[in-house]
């Protein structure tokens, strides 16, 4: 919930198929290259879309090239790729410049709230988006959700839709906005008062490198990040007034770094006779799940832990890929109780990403190379043992309601 524009948008640079004109011959070559390579490389391309449907759509896209702009062709290929149906296969926007509206939104309790914005629009923080250029947010969400990439289940669809909804070229290419780089956003505040604000876009390079943002700051008073932590995404700390520790696991280091981290965690647990462990996999976009097993290995060596009911794991809609795999594994090998939301990818499904670039446009296409089965029962995301969703009342006050539940549970043991 705190970092939404992640892997698909974090590496944008200046060259853009959105802003250049690619002729029909080159697009035809690119589309043929796309079809050949995704058929050759994807482990099971036709698991949700039939070969006939896929080929018919390819032909339809090629037959209408003369009627379409580059943006519209890219949108057509995004829509087709989305139908392949797994979270590692995508017609990616990585490597091209886009323009983003200066707000970040998140669906909380069925409403699209502004959770991050530039300083000059800080008065929008917390407001509900209801319309863009006079079109209802529900209509726009419905259209964007059909082209959003890296979607695997209901949870990731919500996250990815929110990310892609702020890309102005997509909104304009889908004829949802009147101007490519400006739109009128209508907001509702908590008192029910409506307001409309004209927002201009920021190019992606400036958005990520040169723009100051204001957002909600969620804190856990009982936990303090150590000042000597090497990483912001991987650290541990005691939980005040308990016999537990909290492990922040938001991204994956190297094998060597995880081994060092695991050793330091084990040493602390043994020296302090720690009984409870909380592993926070929220907002973890994935990496190498084999690295995550190193952490489980070292934790398993600690005899002071309450292995019957003292291991907790936090997940949310932004627990993706390898983090989903580790969540399922840790439930089994650490007897962890999962608290929070279902994960954004599935414990049984297509993973392990490969990629290729189209020869003319340079667009990146990713695909799944492996099929992993971390659960006997197929579910849409790893389902938590204790379902706790983010709620606006807590989040807007800076309260982590999921971790609050865990700490209370530890204290009553």
Automatic annotation (TrEMBL):
MF terms in GO: serine-type peptidase activity
Tail specific protease domain boundaries: 304-387
Highest rank taxon of the organism: Bacteria
Protein name as annotated: S41 family peptidase
Signal peptide span: 1-19
InterPro entries xref list: ClpP/crotonase-like_dom_sf, Tail-specific_protease
Keywords: Signal
Organism: Hwangdonia lutea
A Pfam entry, by short name: Peptidase_S41
GO biological process: proteolysis
């Amino acid at each position: 919930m705190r970092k939404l524009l992640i892997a698909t948008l974090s590496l944008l640079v200046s060259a853009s198929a959105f802003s250049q004109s690619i002729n029909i011959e080159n697009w035809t070559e690119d589309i043929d290259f796309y079809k050949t390579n995704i058929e050759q490389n994807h482990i099971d391309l036709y698991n949700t879309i039939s070969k006939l449907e896929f080929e018919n759509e390819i032909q339809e896209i090629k037959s209408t090239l003369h009627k379409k702009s580059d943006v519209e062709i890219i949108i057509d290929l995004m829509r087709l790729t989305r139908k392949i149906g797994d979270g590692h296969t995508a017609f990616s926007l990585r490597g091209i410049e886009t323009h983003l509206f200066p707000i970040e939104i998140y669906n909380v309790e069925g409403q699209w709230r502004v959770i991050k914005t530039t300083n000059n629009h800080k008065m929008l923080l917390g407001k509900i988006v209801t319309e863009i250029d006079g079109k209802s947010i529900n209509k726009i969400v419905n259209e964007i959700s059909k082209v959003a990439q890296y979607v695997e289940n209901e949870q990731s669809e919500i996250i990815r839709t929110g990310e892609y909804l702020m890309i102005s070229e997509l909104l304009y290419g889908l004829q949802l906005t009147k101007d490519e780089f400006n739109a009128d956003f209508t907001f509702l505040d908590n008192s029910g008062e409506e307001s409309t604000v004209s927002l201009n876009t920021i190019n992606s390079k400036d958005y990520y490198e040169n723009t100051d943002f204001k957002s909600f700051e969620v804190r856990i008073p009982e936990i303090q990040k150590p000042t000597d932590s090497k990483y912001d995404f991987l650290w541990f700390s005691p939980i005040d007034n308990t016999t537990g520790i909290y492990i922040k696991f938001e991204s994956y280091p190297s094998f060597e770094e995880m081994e060092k981290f695991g050793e330091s965690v084990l040493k602390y647990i043994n020296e302090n006779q720690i009984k409870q462990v909380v592993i926070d996999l929220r907002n973890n976009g994935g990496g190498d799940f084999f690295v995550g097993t190193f952490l489980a290995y070292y934790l398993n060596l600690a005899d002071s832990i309450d292995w019957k009911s003292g291991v907790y794991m936090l997940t949310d809609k932004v627990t993706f890929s390898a983090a989903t795999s580790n969540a399922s594994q840790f439930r089994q090998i650490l007897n962890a109780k999962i608290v929070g939301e279902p994960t954004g990818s599935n414990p049984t499904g297509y993973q392990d990403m490969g990629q290729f670039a189209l020869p003319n446009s340079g667009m990146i296409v990713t695909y799944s190379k492996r099929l992993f089965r971390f659960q006997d029962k197929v579910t849409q995301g790893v389902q938590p043992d204790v379902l706790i969703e983010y709620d606006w009342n807590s989040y807007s006050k800076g309260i982590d309601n999921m971790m609050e539940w865990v700490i209370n549970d530890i204290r009553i043991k």
